[in-house]
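During the no-cost extension, the postdoctoral fellow (Dr. R.K.) reprocessed legacy sequence entries with the updated structure-token encoder. One reprocessed record is reproduced below for audit purposes.
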Amino acid sequence: MLFSVDEIRSEFQGIQFGYLEELTIQLNEGQYHMGEASVIRFTGKKGG
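Re-encoded structure tokens follow.
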């Protein structure tokens, strides 16, 4: 994993996260882009 959830929180200070999660997923995006992947997914909104 290139980043951790804590690093994302730190790098995106001032963002109100809708969700922030670390997952292991199965990719199936073509012959050379398949298999298990660790990802961090999030949505956020700039604080006002």
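The mean pLDDT is 93. Residues 5-46 form one domain. The remaining legacy entries will be reprocessed before the final report is submitted.
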